[in-house]
From TrEMBL:
UniProt keyword annotations, A-Z: 2Fe-2S, Dioxygenase, Iron, Iron-sulfur, Metal-binding, Oxidoreductase
Top-rank taxon, per record: Bacteria
Record InterPro entries: Cholesterol_7-desaturase (IPR050584), Rieske_2Fe-2S (IPR017941), Rieske_2Fe-2S_sf (IPR036922), VanA_C_cat (IPR044043)
Rieske domain ranges (all copies): 8-109
GO molecular function, one term: dioxygenase activity
SUPFAM superfamilies in UniProt: Bet v1-like (SSF55961), ISP domain (SSF50022)
PROSITE patterns, per the entry: RIESKE
Record-given protein name: Aromatic ring-hydroxylating dioxygenase subunit alpha
UniProt keyword Repressor present: no
């Protein structure tokens, strides 16, 4: 399995992990997630050490999991504490425990050598858990390799062609971008600042801004998993104040977590955090429905592309142009991380 290892990945939304046993494969590794009674998230290898039965198909006994096949019983740290029919528990009876961190309403899991997990290295998405933003979110299964979703999100010119009527307008593909790569921090920045542009329905109906707009798309991609799109929508000509205050603009943090499931499937987590119309339930429903439609338009396109690529002989030569600069920088970073 070729994935960047010794990296943090989003495994679930915090709200998904509770009393139940949640099965999720991350970078080809089957993991079962649950929460102990005192609220701590747990991740264990989802394979019983006895005959590989999935622990996620088993049952809890307090904070322990009792394998549903012959009853091996595991502690939250993966130690087997009881086996059927004998008092002695073999010393090697355990399942691997994953380092799991809950932050910014996300459940992050470390994939790699456990001793190297540093929670301080987890990239931040503070808007998701902030009283100054309201977030709608979802997750769609993608039957395509995660690299295709990285390419897609690093080059938003596709909005003009794939997402007309939602977030796409002619200006997105027509406006030049700037790309910056912070090799030290391992972050790729791509910016597109549209002036006097058409306001797509996704923003016209949610922000209430009428007429032409200035629209900023500032991408900040933290390979491998966290993608942030700082989106600023303002009546055309309105600029942020000198000290950064920007009351006449609307800000949306469009967050994606790109989590590989297998070599050819991906968990596509999507979130829209907004600082406008925060009490308006209808705006929340509208943005959730619209964004899910946008995500499914990408899923359909990338599932098709995955089939094409899977059927291609190795070595197909792609042609890249300026809009691909950010995506190519991201690929180089991911290739270096995978080779480590
Ligand atoms: N931020 C960095 O560390 C960094 C580093 C290198 C390059 N860059 C690039 O340089 C450019 C400037 O980056 P920046 O982050 O300093 O941009 P910035 O501070 O000008 O604003 C960037 C984004 O922040 C949002 N924003 C601005 N004012 C806001 C407000 N009052 N409330 C909420 N959101 C607000 C907007 O959505 C905007 O798209 C961007 O193109 C970025 O991609 C940024
Ligand atoms: O460009 C945008 O504003 C935008 C909004 C929502 C999305 O899901 C997205 O991928 C881009
Ligand atoms: S497979 Fe789990 S106890 Fe036998
Ligand atoms: Fe898209």
């Amino acid at each position: 399995m070729a994935f960047p290892r010794n990296q943090w990945y989003v495994a679930a939304y915090a709200s998904e992990v509770g009393d139940g046993l949640l099965a999720r494969t991350i970078c080809g590794e089957p993991i079962v997630f649950y929460r102990t009674r005192d609220g701590k998230p747990v991740g264990l290898a989802d394979r019983c050490v006895h005959r590989r039965y999935p622990l996620s198909a088993s049952s809890r006994d307090g904070d322990r999991i009792v394998c549903g096949y012959h009853g091996f019983t595991y502690d939250p740290d993966g130690t087997c504490v009881a086996v059927p029919g004998q008092r002695r528990v073999p010393r090697t009876a355990r399942v691997p425990r994953y380092t799991v961190v809950e932050q910014d309403s996300l459940i992050w899991v470390w994939i790699g050598e456990d001793g190297k997990a540093d929670p301080a290295a987890i990239p931040r998405a503070p808007w998701l858990d902030s009283p100054d933003y309201v977030t709608v979110r979802g997750m769609e299964p993608l039957a395509a390799r995660y690299e295709l979703l990285v390419d897609n999100l690093l080059d938003l010119s596709h909005e003009t062609y794939l997402h007309g009527g939602y977030i796409g307008t002619p200006e997105v593909a027509a406006t030049p971008i700037t790309t910056e790569v912070d090799e030290e921090a391992g972050v790729v920045y791509v910016s597109r600042r549209m002036k006097d542009a058409e306001c797509p329905p996704f923003y016209a109906k949610s922000t209430g801004i009428q007429g032409r707009i200035d629209r900023w798309q500032d991408i900040e991609y933290h390979p491998p998993c966290l993608y942030l799109l700082h989106s600023r929508i303002a009546p055309t000509g309105v600029e942020p104040g000198p000290d950064g205050d920007d009351p006449r603009a609307c800000h949306a943090e469009i967050v994606y977590a790109i989590t590989p499931e297998t070599e050819t499937s991906t968990h596509d987590f999507w979130m829209v955090a907004r600082d406008f119309a925060m009490d308006d339930e209808e705006v929340s429903r509208f943005l959730a429905d619209s964004n899910r439609t946008v995500v499914l338009q990408d899923v359909e396109a990338l599932n098709l592309l995955e089939k094409v690529i899977a059927a291609e002989p190795e070595g197909y030569q792609e042609l890249s142009i300026n809009i691909d600069t950010g995506g190519l920088a991201a690929r180089r970073m991911l290739q270096r991380m995978t080779a480590q």
